[in-house]
Design goal:
Blueprint (H helix, E strand, L loop, with lengths): L4 H14 L6 H12 L7 H13 L3 H13 L5 H17 L3 H12 L7 H14 L3 H13 L6 H10 L4
Helix pairs in contact: 1-2, 1-3, 2-3, 3-4, 3-5, 4-5, 5-6, 5-7, 6-7, 7-8, 8-9
Length: 166
């Protein structure tokens, strides 16, 4: 039985991202591009990793089309798919597309819950703030934070909801 090349590239990409601060921009992007090149040209995981590398160095406008292409193939699955939605929405917000980014995040929220829920909430809050809906954004992050507090969970969640009640 042969190893799954996508799983291997995903694993090695995660290891590279864990050491991103040890690289300069060009070397890091080149290292991710080399990994992605081990997969077929239009492989969704390869596209995703390339988008992540560009995004990590502040190239949001270049990252968005790669995220979109990776997602549009239908082959991006699991954590990479959810991360791509969150990260693409963040990049869209960075490039002045906060409303469509928020719509993506709301749709993603309806897909279920996992360990990326707090990242989804934080990115949603940033989109809301960019749209002048700061109280909703604050409510969103307070609700996400409330479950992690050692005490005051219920009170903080109630305060968060009260921010957006009429």
């Amino acid at each position: 039985m042969t190893a799954d090349p996508r799983a291997d590239v995903n694993h090695r990409a995660a290891a590279l991202f864990a050491t991103i601060d040890d690289y300069d921009e060009q070397d890091f992007i080149a290292a991710i591009d080399a990994l992605a090149a081990e997969l077929p040209a239009e492989d969704p995981d390869g596209l995703f990793h390339r988008a992540c590398a560009l995004d990590s160095w502040g190239h949001s406008a270049q990252a968005v089309p790669l995220y979109r292409k990776a997602l549009d193939t239908g082959g991006l699955t699991g954590e990479n798919r959810r991360r791509a939605v969150i990260q693409m929405a963040s990049s869209m917000r960075n490039t002045g597309q906060a409303q469509p980014a928020l719509e993506l995040l709301v749709a993603e929220h309806d897909q279920g819950s996992d360990h990326l829920d707090d990242a989804l909430a934080a990115t949603t809050a940033l989109c809301l703030a960019s749209l002048g809906r700061e109280r909703e954004g604050l409510s969103t992050v307070l609700l996400a934070l409330a479950k992690h507090l050692p005490r005051y969970n219920r009170s903080m969640a109630n305060y968060a909801r009260a921010l957006v009640e009429d």
